Amino acid sequence: MSNRRLKGSRRTTPPPTPRRPRADKAARLDLGVLDGHLGYFIRRLQVWVFQDFIRTLATIDIRPAQYSVLVVIAANPGASQSQIAATLGIERARLARLLNKLEKRDLVERLESPSDARSHALRLTRDGNRTLKRARTLAAKHETRLAEILGPERHKLLIDSLRDSSC
Amino acid sequence: MSNRRLKGSRRTTPPPTPRRPRADKAARLDLGVLDGHLGYFIRRLQVWVFQDFIRTLATIDIRPAQYSVLVVIAANPGASQSQIAATLGIERARLARLLNKLEKRDLVERLESPSDARSHALRLTRDGNRTLKRARTLAAKHETRLAEILGPERHKLLIDSLRDSSC
Prior knowledge:
The structure is a homodimer. By secondary structure, the first copy, chain A, is mainly alpha-helical. Chain A has helices at about 1-10, 40-55, 65-75, 80-90, 90-105, 125-150, 150-165, and strands at about 110, 120-125. Chain A has seven helices and two strands, in the order αααααββαα. In chain A, a hairpin with a 7-residue loop joins strand 1 (about 110) and strand 2 (about 120-125). The longest helix of chain A is centred in the last third of the chain and has 25 residues, at about 125-150. Chain A is globular. Mean pLDDT of chain A is about 85; it is low at about 1-25. The interface between A and B is large, with 68 and 68 residues.
């Protein structure tokens, strides 16, 4: 069932770039009940989108989670670690490890919070701002490629639909 | 910008179940350019869907990738490891580790392939079939909950849209 559908969509929308990772047609088996599971399809797309992102930003060695943290710190200078963790849905321990690495690379600095001695206010360093500027340009290229491959309507529909679900 | 949108969508579509993981409104910061990145939203939803799946199938200790493999083997008895890997987009080394665990739990067996001495034909054991039957029932409950939380139209739209992108 699923195979037929996949083949159907393949005929009408051929891969527009050679970078699109597709399994050999002949190797595709029946997906069985996976064909009705959102989690299966969302994971496939997520892995593929992240691979493209990582490849696109490889020259500046910025991975998706690092990019998210840099973007949100830049958009909210002085925000606390717990605010960043809550906004991005990252566990606090994982965010702490991530920030340690960014701090070692001199991209982020932790300042004493004027309002709460127990928490730190986060800010990008000058190098952090410079790296983020390059990262934004590369991430925009990645996003343009996604829109080309998925088709601009489907790309927009997916972003709008996922943003509204805001899990 | 993003905060306003998130708040807007939150007002019109309140969380219908208490299990829906939402950060404290007050803690949400501006997402900056993340608000235009498909990868960000798809990752958030994927993590949340997987957490719900793992929780729902915890009693039988079947995780998403294990479920996918069991489903596809059952739908294609005798398929080879490389066919399963290609269909699910799993690296062969990872699939081999996954199959070792399922074999140790006596859920999957590798038989000599009648057509190719170098490859194995995969099949579920009797226990494998029994476990998959329970897994399917639990996974269907998980899917029903997703449809309730996302709304049935958005749930269907996301599955159809992601299936057609078939990355």
